[in-house]
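User: Need the bound-state model for inosine-5'-diphosphate:
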Amino acid sequence: MAANGERTFIAIKPDGVQRGLVGEIIKRFEVKGFKLVGMRMIHASVDHLKQHYADLKDRPFFADLVSYMNSGPVVAMVWEGKNAVKTGRVMLGETDPAKSNPGTIRGDFCIDVGRNIIHGSDSVDSANQEIALWFKPEELVSYTSCAHSWIY
Ligand code: IDP
Ligand code: MG
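Assistant: Bound-state model below.
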């Protein structure tokens, strides 16, 4: 895949949806220059969320995390662009909003690590796994953005 075609999985968590932050979060990725190639709203099942967070299954907060993520709909998205995974994480801020700089999504819009409003893949490998878990291949679109040559 071309360097500009790196993809990351971003999900607005149930608190982000309930607090009316969907537009604000999408806007940040759009104005940055990333390309939206997949999006759907879903109230994910406990099983699905356990799979999504399988790496954390032994952590003490795992049950609370799954129940938080299952408490309402999430907006699942795939964003594409150069270094989308790493830059996406920078845009999110730290896991703990208290350690997140102003200007980041978690730094600007939330307070508690257990209500940190957004998920973003932490590596290209996990992005590929997460995208495959949340989207069927035919749900992802391929198109050329008219802004491409103004961004790259
Ligand atoms: P990340 O979302 O920044 O990648 P992870 O360590 O992968 O952080 O943890 C996944 C999610 O689990 C976090 O976004 C947060 O919602 C929750 N979480 C992480 N650490 C804690 C904790 O210490 N207490 C409660 N929830 C936590
Ligand atoms: Mg993580």
